[in-house]
């Protein structure tokens, strides 16, 4: 039976580094739940984390129930009932368009927690500066729906707003953040300088826990921002908390040859369990449990040895790793191994704790649609309505 295996010590190592970055820079470090929301592993993160970034009501509830601390919410659009409940638990609520803010402005500002200053409201802006290389992950692509472009804020009524937020990076360094911040400042610096502004959120995408990340440069940028603007500064990385902390363990179900290719069918699917492998697309690092192997996946069980798979043809036996599904393209990739694979062999797909688990369950905590049946007489009824409990239950 396939499983995701997550290492608490590896999570704590990342968390301590992020915490240290927060302490040195004076910025508050949130965990973006969209990347990692396995609550049973939160004990390794909780002592080192200032709170969570939530993509909507489900993730905000999860943050309140399982992490505590600050809750910053951003969704491209809120439903009224969702926002009502968010007003009870969130500390920052960021809006993606002026029409949404205007529609809910009165309701938000009249809430007792807003009157007491316990929940603040902000706008996500688009600095219109791309640093990414993959359009699907770039909120600054032409035609992006994420973030308000500069010209729309020129004459807008910003009363009642206390924060600005941007998120544009993906797996990037301090250098890309610095150039993005300069673009932000050019377009929106005057708004951040307004005396009513209380917070500034620089989103996620910061690869802070990678060994080559230029932490010093990040810390000086954050100190510069805090010295220039009278606002609390937030970062909300996701991947950086959970990178190199977990693997997906799979089993070979069958091995056969067809039309000149050697196939190994696993008990996991790129489409159902690792959609980024197809969407991005990317090639995960793969290991096989193999006596005498010297490979080191993110999680190693004491006493077990792993051999890292190579490029096709690099080692003696090349296989196309495929899924037990009907989709012809549900293939993880072509990998070579030192010995033939057999049914029952254990295959390790490396670095699958962040994003992969949530994509297997409820990406962004977006509620799943109900299932309704239409009868011949025109009547319809809902047979299954998935709830918050289903979401929480599936995250472990
Ligand atoms: C608004 C927002 N904040 C934070 C994140 C977390 O980004 P990452 O996991 O790349 O650090 C994302 C990711 O898409 C995001 O959309």
Structure, described:
The protein is an alpha/beta fold and 396 residues long. The protein has two domains: 8-242, Alanine racemase (TIM Barrel), CATH 3.20.20.10; 246-356, Lyase, Ornithine Decarboxylase, Chain A, domain 1. Helices cover 29% and strands 23% of the residues. It has twelve helices and 18 strands. It has helices spanning 8-25, 57-66, 80-89, 98-110, 112-115, 174-192, 215-228, 239-242, 270-273, 275-279, 356-360, 388-394; strands spanning 3-6, 28-32, 51-54, 70-74, 92-95, 120-124, 163-165, 199-201, 232-235, 246-258, 261-266, 286-289, 306-308, 317-322, 331-337, 346-350, 371-374, 380-384. The strands form three sheets. Strands 1, 10, 11, 12, 13, 14, 15 and 16 form an eight-stranded mixed beta sheet that branches. The two termini are 16 Å apart. 41% of the residues are buried. The model has no long low-confidence stretch (mean pLDDT 96). The structure holds pyridoxal-5'-phosphate. Pyridoxal-5'-phosphate is lined by residues 32, 34-35, 53, 74, 167, 170, 203-205, 236-240.
Provide a brief overview of the structure:
With 396 residues, this protein is an alpha/beta fold. It has helices at 8-25, 57-66, 80-89, 98-110, 112-115, 174-192, 215-228, 239-242, 270-273, 275-279, 356-360, 388-394; strands at 3-6, 28-32, 51-54, 70-74, 92-95, 120-124, 163-165, 199-201, 232-235, 246-258, 261-266, 286-289, 306-308, 317-322, 331-337, 346-350, 371-374, 380-384. The chain has two domains: 8-242, Alanine racemase (TIM Barrel); 246-356, Lyase, Ornithine Decarboxylase, Chain A, domain 1.
